[in-house]
Specification:
Structural class: mainly alpha
Radius of gyration: 23 Å
GO molecular function: electron transfer activity; heme binding
Protein name: QcrC domain protein
Helix content: 40-55%
Shape: elongated
Number of strands: 0
Distance between the termini: 62 Å
Oligomer: single chain
Largest sheet: none
Low-confidence stretches: none
Mean pLDDT: 73
Order of helices and strands: HHH
């Protein structure tokens, strides 16, 4: 009986992998974000943000 219940429960699931697809608005946001980073942030943080050591550097309360 338990095997039958498990078999019936699994029928609703698709075994194909899901693929994320970016829509145009997401692509536009990514382009805008990159442009903003390239003009405002890259000078201090570098193009790959390798210069970012820790968040504490930016938090002046600490």
């Amino acid at each position: 009986m338990a095997a039958l219940a498990l078999a019936a429960a699994g029928r609703g699931f698709d075994t194909k992998p899901q693929v994320a697809v970016a829509d145009e608005s997401s692509s536009a946001l990514l382009r805008t974000g990159k442009q903003l980073f390239d003009t405002s942030c890259v000078t201090c943080h570098g193009p790959t943000c390798r210069a970012c050591r820790s968040r504490a550097q930016l938090d002046r309360r600490r």
